[in-house]
Amino acid sequence: MENTVRKAIFAGSFDPITNGHLDIIERASKLFDELQIGVLYNPNKKGLFTFEERVKLIKECTNHISNIKIVSFDGLLVNYCEKNGIQTLVRGIRNGADVEYELQMAHMNKELNPNIETVILPTTTKYSYISSSLIKEVLNFDANIENLVPKVILEELKRKTNRGK
């Protein structure tokens, strides 16, 4: 039997990375030999953080995990996987709406490349309502989000938005 490295990728925009994302990353890193964090690059989309800032912050938040590799790409995820020997897509879900969307994406990705599997991990219950969009929205109202994002992200969010909380 061939000794292959089990590679997976968890892709997203991560603007910003949240404790929910980190929950999925930490758990998925235990399932695979190498877990790539794929930061989607879209020059037409203006996020709160630049692409370079997101990559830097993800590195800071995941530097305690030895089998993580931060990568970037544009185009179809399954094409990136095929070119880089990645066999598995990792997706996180928070609720029923996520399940429906992720199943649709998993079926489409399977249609595009039958050799790539999708593994769907439900987030830990305490993070089931967190999204990057919601974080940015409540921050506009000076909400306390210290339990929702890593400390380094909280500091950068405060700096970016000139908020003191």
From TrEMBL:
Substrate binds at S13, K45, L77, R91. The record marks H21 as: Transition state stabilizer. InterPro entries: Citrate_lyase_ligase_C, Cyt_trans-like, PPAT, Rossmann-like_a/b/a_fold. GO terms for biological process: coenzyme A biosynthetic process. GO terms for molecular function: [citrate (pro-3S)-lyase] ligase activity; ATP binding; pantetheine-phosphate adenylyltransferase activity. Its main location: cytoplasm. It is an enzyme of class 2 (transferase). The keyword Transmembrane helix does not apply. It is found in: Cytoplasm. Residues 16-157 form the Citrate lyase ligase C-terminal domain. CDD domains: PPAT. Pathway: Cofactor biosynthesis; coenzyme A biosynthesis; CoA from (R)-pantothenate: step 4/5. Its EC number is 2.7.7.3. Its cofactor is Mg(2+). PANTHER family: PHOSPHOPANTETHEINE ADENYLYLTRANSFERASE. NCBIfam families: coaD_prev_kdtB, cyt_tran_rel. Belongs to the bacterial CoaD family. This is Phosphopantetheine adenylyltransferase. It comes from Paraclostridium benzoelyticum. The lineage of its organism: Bacteria, Bacillati, Bacillota, Clostridia, Peptostreptococcales.
